[in-house]
Every structure is written in structure tokens, then in C-alpha cells.
Amino acid sequence: MGLSKSPKRRGFSSGEWRRHSLPGAGSCRDKREREENFMTEFENPRSFSRRSFVTGAAALTGAGLLAACSPQSQPEQGAEGEEGLAGTGGNEEIYAGACDGNCAGGCYLNIHVRDGKIVRTSARELPDPAYTRICSKGLSQVGRVYSSNRLLYPMKRVGERGSNDFERISWDEALDFIATKWKEITDQYGPGAMAIFNNSGHYSLCSGSCGTSISVTGRFKNVVGASEISSSLDIGCSHGFSHLTGGIPTYNEITDRKNANVSILWGNNPAISNPHTAHFHKEAQEDGNRLIVIDPIYNANAAMADWWVPVKAGTDGALAAGILNIYFTRGLLDEGFLKSTTNCPYLIKEDGMFVRMSDLGVEPTVEPDPLTGEDVPVDPIVVWDAAQNAPVAITEATDPLLESVPGVNGMKVQTVLENAKAAVAEYTPERAAEISGLKVEDVEELARIYVEDGPVSTEFFLGVNHYLNAPYTSWLIGLVAMLTGNTGKSGASFGNNQIYIPQYTHTNFAVTMPTDKAGNPCQGGDPHTYATAFLEELIDTGKYGQEDCVLKGVWFTFNNAAATMADSEYTKRWVSKLDLVICSDVMMTDTCRLADIVLPASYWFEHTDVGSYLFATHPYITWNEKAIDPLGESKSDFDIFKAVAERMGYGEFFDLTEEEYCAEALDSEGYKALGISLEALKEKGALRVFPEDVHISDTSVWGTENGRLCLYQENVLYQFGDLGQPVDRKKECGLYWEEGKYCGEHSEARMGEYPFHLLSQKMRTHTHTQWSENEYTREIEPEPLAMLNPDDAAELGIQDGDTIRLRNYQGTVVVKAAINAGVPPKTVAMPRSWQAADFIEGTYQSLISKDFNDTSNNQAYNDVACAVEKM
Prior knowledge:
CATH class of the domain at 155-234 and 503-601 and 636-670: Alpha Beta
Shape: globular
Structural class: alpha/beta
Strand content: 15-25%
Low-confidence stretches: 1-85
CATH architecture of the domain at 155-234 and 503-601 and 636-670: 3-Layer(aba) Sandwich
Largest sheet: 8 strands, mixed
CATH topology of the domain at 155-234 and 503-601 and 636-670: Rossmann fold
């Protein structure tokens, strides 16, 4: 390609790198010599050479989807393929595993082992062959397992924090250090002064990142009484949906896409992010399904679409508001549906609160809460019933009015529908088209499709999530689908295919709240869950909002926060102020480099576990077998937490094995009803978590008050708590949209010194920073590139491969340029899935502000403006 620079060393300090890397791998400075030593030391795929991988992946890149659209054929046992990197001698054993990284695909794999070494991976059959797929990341797992960047031994920092200067120590030394320092902190400040910072690096049940209510991290947190830090990632849209649906899922199983007449990818990039799922869309399209892609960039998804809608980045909410405006002004929505299923008839007082029966002089009653059993006051919401021509409780109304309600007890009121109409009144089709960069006809056609061409399946995902306005946008887009009846039936779905709720609701959560041998319960974790944007203030002031709190140490697990969180300098700053920093990981990462103690975790195929858990693109949980022994002195995350707990005196709470942990977690009435247990899973290998053949979301009852879809909320909903921040009720309680704080065309930044909108992009060969250390995939995408529109590049005198600087109000990053006509004008598209050493200077995160929405602490990766300069 002519764009690659010599990769920087991404591991330890020079001496430690040579002493503690795999034999013959990390000490080589010359790329070719390093690869030759790597190939000599470890067997690799007999039928999957580097040449065939690179050639095939290049073809995949050009074709966009071919490799992901058809299942991988299974070679006959013992058959010889083309000359590859592995020898053909020795007996081959095949183990079951899952690709449990945070693409959340959970693809089921064959792990091929010869002479105790993994030599290749292939797709393993799932009960439904439509889900039997593997992508370039899954195929290149050998490169991760035997990466020269693998952590093999415990290490202790010997230089300044962040200096990347470590020495190898024994496990006993590491455990003694952690136990002693942890006890010093908690004895002085209380157990909550230490926190677990868990993220999404490995979706398995036991030694994975399925949250502190499921995985071993939660058991440890509750045993030692630690607090927790929220990653604040990808949560803006879920906050908007909580207003709308109360958290009820609205997505159907992806095999149902063939039953839609129209599929719309809105903020979704399956051809790159989940290429193993793209065949579902392509196959449905071949059967007559119309595929529409709403995306600012012409990419692999747009290339296969019947209609590409090039919405201006960050303006999706204005487009949705324009569609709703059409529905409201032209009376296109079913009035019966609005009356029975939404809160449109609710009456709002001038103070923004709903009219309730107590406003009419009726005292609230007291009833037991169905979940807790505790008595709670019941004060029904009031509507105006046309049948009685009077205000009544919503439960007593037979024909509630949607508009033109007279005053109630001298109070001026409006219905929720009237409030919603007023909120989107300014977004006429013409205005929505102007803001979103589309034609008026485009807005009209999208509105028509949802009403007339259903069922419509809307694949809505994270592209819209990475803005400060994400909660507003998701509420509006969700309403477009749900008010037109495009959820809750075959072919009608809204959301994404990565979250399967039964894996959460059926888990026996008692597994994270153990008792000791005498039956005494663990102390339970500190109730505080801290949002990342407030950590430095918390550390400096001892205050979290108005509450006195202390944070003195953090354990990073399944988490590369230094490379993935917004404002990397902020992350380094608050971490530098802690008394104890622990990081456990499979690879040496930017976050490990900030730690005092680094603990080597075994790879996914080096211990047993239940895989594809909580997040997956198929509806199965899988049994992951131990294929090889852990490399070096690495341990499973379960064994790491168990060892630390034992050294701290909490061993009785960890008196079980990994398999026993999994068995207990799966021991629930929900799983029993599905015939799921650990024994059954080990026998079958993969078990379905839905009882029906094709799961259709149940939208008969919503999770909101009175079980209705909401176009308005009377109370401000806080995703991370009311910390005293100023809140505008008009923005947070009803329908609303505003352009991006930084990326908006009329923002101070874009109108001034930083005219470009910087968009983060996913990579086919990485999942965030995972696989960035893989030499196989680095041959395809060797370094971060900033993609520019040809006209912008010409104006700036930039050619393909030139070194450029992106700078803004936050920082700077230096990378190579790539000219791409699919990128819109005044836009820079760049992947953020790299570590600091991969950039020439700075990082993508250097340019992102940690600013947050007033009620949602969401990382706004795409709400970024910048200037572009040729170096």
C-alpha cells in the first residue's frame, strides 16, 4: 500500500521486553526476522497460510461481504491444504471454544491443537447452521494467542507510573503486594475506597466481562466490599430508550429479517462490525426484501443497499423529527393505538408534571409493590374521558381525548400528544431535509415506507450512539418505528441483534453474593458506581456530587481504558493520582502501562467457561473447553480473583472451581424451564436461550408506568444519578433534538478554527484495541489512517499516504492520510481501534472531550471537530 511505517514496539521497557516475551518473538527488531522466528517457534494453520490469509482478506475487503456471507467449509480430518505456516505432522485434536471478544459476536469455533499448540481456528457448527460463521478476527486467533505482546508473568512497576518500566515478579510477590496495599487503603478509608473498573473485553460467564452481577468480578467486588466504576460507553441510546419503552427489548432474532418487507440499517455497520451477520441481510434482500442504509459514509453496507440515504453525520434525530412531523400533521397514526398503547392522552400541568387523582382531591391509596412487596402510594394519572366528558383515572377511561382538553380544576393542561406535536413542529420535511443534508423527497419516502411498506425491520445501532445528543436522537428514531407498528411481530423489529436478554434475566445472581462455610454472607459491594467523567473531581475533593466519597485505588479488568476512553490525558491524570493501580489482561496494553501491578490473564482457549454469554449475535450459550495450557504463568481471571481473595483472607468465599461457579450461575428456574444446566451444556456444546424457533419481541406491555410507550416523562431520568448538575426539563422530559455540541455545523468549533467533523470508524480486523497486536491482521490494516474526501484533500494539498496532523481544542494526533470518495466533505473518518504506539503522535482519544449529556454520561466519540494540516 505504500502507507506503512515501521511499527513501534508496544510492550515493556527494552530489557523487560527481551526477558519476558515469548521465545524468538519480541526481541526481534527487524519485521521479517521477527516473523520468521514467530513461525519457527509456533505451529500455525496447515491450510491457512499468511499468504492465503492476506490474499483472502484483501479480497474480502474489496468485495465487502463475500467471506462473511457463506459458512466456512470444514476440511476433512487429515487433509492437506496449500503449503502453510504449520507442519502437517502430529495428531490433531479439536476443542470447542467461542470468539468472546467485545464485537459481541460470540461465534462458535473449533480450536485445532497439535502437540499442545493451537495451530488454527475454524467455524464450529451451531444447531442452526445459519449462525455457523467466522470472520477474519476469528480466523486469525492464533496470532493473538501467540502474540509477542502476550503477558506471561506478573510484573511490578519500577519506574514512574506510565514509564513502561516493569520488572518480573513471582505470583507470591504480586499477591502479597496487592493484599498488603489493599488492606492499608481499606483499613484507613473503608472498603469502598478500592474500585473495580470492569469493561467488555471478554463475554463469558465466569472469567469474563458480563458485569458485576454475573461474572467473577462481581463475586470479588461483593466479597471485599469494593465500589465500581462505570465505563460510560455506548449508553446514550439506551438512556433514550429507557424514556420510551422502560427498557423493554424490541428486537427480533436476526433470522426473522427474511420476514420483513424492508430492512433499514440506521447507524449500523454489520459489514464491518459484525461481518458474520451480513449474510442475513443479503439473503433477505435476494428474497425481495428492500435494504435501506442510512449512513453518512458510503461503505460496504451502502454498496449493497437498494437505497443509500446519506444523512449528514449527527443529524439523524432531526431526520426522525421530520418524519414524526409528517405523521402528526397529516394524521397518519392510528388513534386507537395512541389511546391504548401510548401515554399520548396523559394530561400535563404547567409545571411539567402529570395531572393525578390527588389533584382532583382523591387521596392516594397504598398497595404492595409487585417486585419488592413493600407498600407504595398509588396516585393514578388522569386523562379526559370523552365518554364521561370528565377527567378520570387512566384505568377508568374508555375513550380518552388526545387533544383539545379543557382546563381541569382550574388548571391549564395539555395532552402528551399536544406536547409532542409542539416539540417537532419546527422540523417540517423541508427543515429536516435541510439539516440532514437530504432531499425533501427522501424524508417523505422514509415516512411513507414505515407506514405503507411494512413490516419494517430497523437495525439501529451504535453509530448514532456516539454523540452528546444520542438520548434525544434514539427516542425520536424509536418512535418512528414503534408508532407505526413496526415492532413486536414477525418482520417488524427495532434495535440490534447483539443482546439476548434471557442470558441476563435467567442467571442465578446469588453466584456473586456468596456465603462462607458457616453461612455468613459476604459484606456486599459498596453501592457507589462512579461515572468516569467525575473521577478526577472525586479523587481531588472527596466528593461525588454532594456525597462524601473516597477513591484510592482501581483494578482494571477486561478494560483498556487508557486507549478507549474519551480524553486520554484525563484518564492518565486521574489514574496517576491513585495509591494503587492493578491491571489484569491478556496483552500488554496502554492501561497496563499505567499500573503498579500487572497480572497475566490466560487466553479464552486456555481455561473452561460458558461462552457467548450476555452478548452474542446468535441465541446460544456455548461450552468453551480448555484447549491448551495457559502460556507462561498466566491464570484465568477466575483463578486470579480467587488467588487475591485468598491472600486477603477471603478464601472461604471462593471455595469452588470454575465449573462449579458456572453450574451455580446456570442453576435457576428460568434456565431449568429451557432445559439448560451445565451438564446439558457440556453434553450438547451449545444450547438455545429462547424457547421458540424464532424469537419475536414481546411488546404487549412496556416497562414504563402503566405499561405504555412514552412520548413524555414527568420526571428527569438520570443514568448516573443527580449530582447537582443543571438540567433543562424541556430537553430531558419531552421530545427534543439539538445538533452536536462540537460537530454541529453551527457550533462554535466548526464555524471557527476547526471546520472538519471527525468520525470514528470500526475496523474489520479489530474490535476496539483487540487484535491491534495481531501480526496477521496488521498486514491488512497496519496502522491508523485518516480518510478524507478528495475535494478536501485537494484543497489542502494532501495526497494519499501523506502525513497529516489533526488538532482541536483537546489535543492533536498525527497519522497518514487516505483519500476516500465515500467520505462526505468537511469530514475526517478514522478508526479509534489502536493503541498509542500505533499512532505517529497522539491518539484518536486525544481529540475527544469527556463532556457528557446532562443526564447521560456517554462517551461522545463522534461529537468532535478538528482542523487538518499537512505535515
